Amino acid sequence: MKKWLFGFVLGVVGLGLMGWPAESSKEVVDRLVAGADEIIKEAQKNGDTDILVVFHGNSIIKLLYALDSTSNPTMIENASISKVVYKDRKYTVASVNDTSYIKE
């Protein structure tokens, strides 16, 4: 776990203060979209139709905006759900930041 977490921190944050290169926003988005494409490909191969993917808030914002710039997410609430539909080789952002399932 520590090795993965350290690799994640290096990859996403880049620890620029230490002189290590950080990913650009485009590189992050390209990596996230490529990952989503790979998840879809594997799911289709297995006949899966519903998929849950968990992201960090900053990554969610970048990915949702890249898939649909009109979604314009600026803040993602903790434990919120954003729904993306993949149909006919196209991603559509169906909802952003839904917390309606949380009981007060």
From TrEMBL:
<dbReference type="Pfam" id="PF00300">
    <property type="entry name" value="His_Phos_1"/>
</dbReference>
<dbReference type="InterPro" id="IPR013078">
    <property type="entry name" value="His_Pase_superF_clade-1"/>
</dbReference>
<protein>
    <recommendedName>
        <fullName>Phosphoglycerate mutase</fullName>
    </recommendedName>
</protein>
<dbReference type="InterPro" id="IPR029033">
    <property type="entry name" value="His_PPase_superfam"/>
</dbReference>
